[in-house]
Amino acid sequence: MCANQKMDYLALNQLAWDKRTKTHLTSDFYDVTGFINGNTSLNSIELNDVGNVEGKRLLHLQCHFGLDSLSWARLGAQVTGVDLSPEAIEQAKGIAAQTQLKANFICADVYAFGEVNDQAFDIVFTSYGALCWLPDLDKWAQTIAKALVIGGQLNVVEFHPFNEILSGYSYFYNSEPDVEEEGTYTENCTGDTSVVVTWAHPLSNVINALIKAGISIEQFSEYPYSPYNCLDNVEQREDGNYYRVSQGQRVPLVYSIVGKKIA
Question: How far apart are CA 232 and CA 182, in angstroms?
Answer without folding.
Answer: 14
